[in-house]
Amino acid sequence: MITKENALNIYIDGSSRNSPRVGGIGVRFILTNSVGQDETEDIPFLGYRGATNNQMELQAGIMALKEMKKRTLPDYIRQVAIHSDSRYVTDNYQRALFQWSGNRWRNQNGRPVDNAEQWKELVKLIRKIGIPVHFYWVKGHSKDEHNKAVDKAAKASAKAPLNAPLTRVNVRRKHTTRPLSRGSVEMMGQRITIRIVTSEWLPIQRLWKYRYEVVSKASRFRGNIDFIYSRLHLGAGHTYYVLFNSDAANPQVEKLFRETKPKQRITGQD
Fold it and tell me: CB under 8 Å to 16, separation ≥6 — which residues?
């Protein structure tokens, strides 16, 4: 169990499950009283429909800081210490503060940052708190009683998913039997036929994010499923003959030649 002195310690956790996809968050506040004892308060939250695990880990931090802003803290509090078992959050919050926010929410390679709207909101809250906010990693599923408590709360929150999805994603069933694998399709400036499995508009970067499967018979990537970005709008469930760029760090569809009709379903096991 890890708590920081002279701090409002907050434990957070996010949970997500499929069939149907729903998510929840858990938040616990910990203050040390005048005799040195920790006083805990669990903050209940409703869950979210269509949520990924990373979205819920971020949302837990956002809602914790929003809740904190409603309160008057004791004078001895010098920092907000947020404890999370999500490396996605603890390893990236400083990048969001000092790099991504100044680079139009793209990473150093120009690739759009996922969940940019949530990161932007988290950064805004951190900057308005008035005292330092730090995120600390804690090992998940350990003996830490606070981590166990927020894990349980997040799972309970997911059972009441009354909040709308944080993002709108159009989804179609994939035809390939292979799982998603980032980077499984090389960017070589090639012409290729792909079928769009999911489409999501990224309003901050003003781009579309696609999960797609390769259907070109002649491609050695046939049956692979990967992510790509584009300013071009492609419909989920539709098949297109397109031109890829040659930047593996920032994969994009550069040109649309035509929409096509696949001659047969792919299995990914050719």
Answer: 22, 23, 24, 51, 52, 53, 55, 56, 158
Residue 270 falls within a domain, yes or no? no
Q: 97 and 123 in contact (C-beta within 8 Å)? A: yes
Report how far residue 250's alpha carbon sits from residue 240's, in angstroms, rounded to the nearest whole number.
Answer: 20
pLDDT tens for residues 20-46? 999 999 999 999 876 677 889 999 999
One-letter amino acid for residue 110 of the chain: G
Residue 200 is part of a domain; what is its CATH number? 2.40.50
Do 179 and 145 lie in one domain? The reply is: no
Residues of the chain below pLDDT 70 = 1, 34-35, 262-270
Q: Give, as one character, the DSSP assignment of residue 196.
A: E
Q: How far is Cα 25 from Cα 126, in angstroms, rounded to an integer? A: 19
The pLDDT, as a whole number, for residue 270 is: 44
Full-prediction pTM beyond 0.85? yes
Is the residue at 266 inside a domain?
Answer: no
Q: At what angle do helices 145-158 and 53-69 cross, to 10 degrees?
A: 110
DSSP state of 100: G
14 lies in the same domain as 120: yes
Q: 177 and 149: one domain? A: no
Amino acid symbol at 265? R
